[in-house]
Write a structure and sequence with these properties.
Layout: E1 2-3, H1 11-14, E2 26-27, H2 29-65, H3 74-80, H4 83-92, H5 109-132, H6 140-166, H7 176-180, H8 188-198, H9 200-218, H10 223-243, H11 249-263, H12 267-274, H13 292-328, E3 336-345, H14 356-359, E4 371-376, E5 381-386, E6 391-399, E7 404-409, E8 412-425, E9 428-435, E10 438-447
Antiparallel strand pairs: 1-2, 3-4, 3-10, 4-5, 5-6, 6-7, 7-8, 8-9, 9-10
Helix pairs in contact: 2-5, 2-6, 4-5, 6-9, 6-11, 6-13, 9-10, 10-11
């Protein structure tokens, strides 16, 4: 990577002293060009991540303590998301007919065009930088500044996703509806979400490892092992996102690149120690500035920013978890899963209990429309499971002290259901009335939650 051999310190080297007192080596021309490109790309990516974190953390604080003031105006989101650049590239380079809009989420057309823009900007910056700064022999001090910046950015992202797993906000908990969905009907991403929601211990372990990596990144003596921990964590996350088609592949890939950039200097030393069984040379630390107080102040500021991000994300995820617990604590009448023991429909048995608009999407064959399960889990909603396993959501209105219910479908105002409720025992229901103009009689019993092996 470096050209060997001592040489006199030129003007560009004299200011780049290191703690060991040795003059840094001259970098090869290819190394200098490569560094300019890598610096430009990772700085732009880090800037985008930092803007998202600041906006996210600012929202959490303002929603509760009304501080800090809204110093992060809306136009900054467009600036750091490169919205104008993305739309220009989409229109003039890829000849897209419609402007590409920023959407909440990742792996969208906007995100792929943004990646193209970042790579293009990094190439242009590296080219211009090479023309204007051909005589510089190395960028050790600038490398140290970039490392300091990326450490706090990566640590913030680790805190954000780590606390989102420790407080079960990212994957949530398994609902009764999800427990009854056939595995074969799930997308790969849905299957991963169910797996993580059911594996509470593994989810907490993953969150703790992310937080551990973030904490170690902020402690100078442990920052290198922190980078290695983050690499291990992000390799697993990126592999899961690829394998299960989770729509954050670009996002997790960039986080992995940040972690690998911070950990790469340690790879040769690990190879020496673990493969060749030889002594690993100590790392020479580069000062951020000739004035040691600047170096010390910058590192203290980095640590303070990291601590602030730690507590802000802890507070934000704790608040969201408290809100979700309050919502789940709301009980609804007849809460639970009810299984139909007996169902009678007057008239033509081929006539469906679902609307014509849902028969196609639900793949209902003649006779499959029988209601096998009813799920009361959320206020004003009833989930109906048909004979073939598909589920359908209906608007629920309980009246007359929960003795009658009205069912409505949002997509088809002509479809109605009006039933009287008779609870013959705590876990027994009888529904009788009209559904889709058919006379219906249904006997049901409530399923005990302990029947689900996954959560028992």
């Amino acid at each position: 990577m470096y050209e060997a051999g001592p040489k006199a310190a030129g003007p560009s080297e004299s200011s780049e002293s290191v703690e060991s007192g040795n003059v840094p080596e001259r970098w090869r021309p290819s190394t200098r060009v490569g560094f300019r490109f890598v610096f430009s790309y990772l700085f732009l990516v880090g800037l985008s991540f930092a803007s998202e974190m600041i906006a996210f953390a600012s929202y959490d604080l303002q929603s509760k303590v009304k501080w800090p003031p809204p110093i992060w105006p809306p136009w900054t989101d467009q600036a750091f998301n490169f919205t104008g650049c993305v739309q220009w590239v989409g229109r003039h380079i890829f000849h897209l007919h419609k402007p590409v809009q920023f959407l909440v989420g990742y792996d969208t057309m906007f995100d792929y065009l943004k990646l193209f823009c970042l790579l293009l900007l990094a190439l242009l910056c590296a080219a211009a930088w090479t023309v204007m700064d051909r005589k510089r022999l190395h960028y050790r001090r600038l490398l140290e500044w970039l490392t300091l910046f990326l450490q706090v950015v990566l640590a913030g992202e680790m805190f954000s996703y780590g606390f989102e797993k420790i407080f079960p906000n990212q994957f949530g908990s398994l609902s009764k509806l999800e427990m009854l969905q056939p595995v074969g009907d799930l997308s790969r991403m849905d299957l991963l979400w169910r797996f993580m929601a059911a594996s509470r211990g593994y989810t907490i372990f993953g969150g703790l490892m992310e937080i551990l990596g973030g904490i170690l990144l902020l402690i100078p003596r442990f920052r290198r092992i922190g980078a290695l921990v983050c690499v291990a964590v992000m390799v697993n996350v990126f592999a899961l996102n690829l394998s299960y088609d989770v729509s954050v592949k670009l996002f997790s890939c960039n986080l992995l690149l940040l972690a690998m950039f911070l950990a790469v200097p340690e790879f040769p030393r690990l190879v020496r120690l673990l493969v060749f069984n030889s002594a690993a040379p100590p790392v020479r630390s580069t000062l951020l500035s000739e004035r040691r107080w600047i170096d010390r102040s910058a590192r203290i500021l980095q640590f303070i920013l990291g601590v602030v991000l730690f507590f802000v994300f802890f507070y934000g995820e704790d608040r969201r978890y408290s809100q979700s617990k309050a919502e789940l604590a709301v009980t609804v009448p007849f809460q639970g899963v009810w299984i139909a023991n007996e169902i009678k429909i007057s008239g033509d048995s081929e006539r469906g209990l679902f609307s014509e608009k849902t028969v196609g999407p639900l793949h209902l064959a003649p006779g499959d429309d029988r209601w096998t399960r009813l799920i009361f889990e959320h206020p004003n909603e009833l989930i109906v499971q048909s004979l073939n396993g598909y589920q359908f959501s209906l608007k629920l209105i309980l009246e007359n002290n929960n003795t009658t219910l009205q069912l409505r479908e949002s997509d088809d105002p002509t479809w109605t259901g009006d039933l009287k409720i008779q609870q013959t025992a705590p876990d027994m229901l009888v529904l009788q009335g009209k559904v889709n103009d058919d006379d219906v009689f249904i006997k049901l019993h409530r399923l005990n939650d302990s029947a689900f092996r996954l959560t028992n």
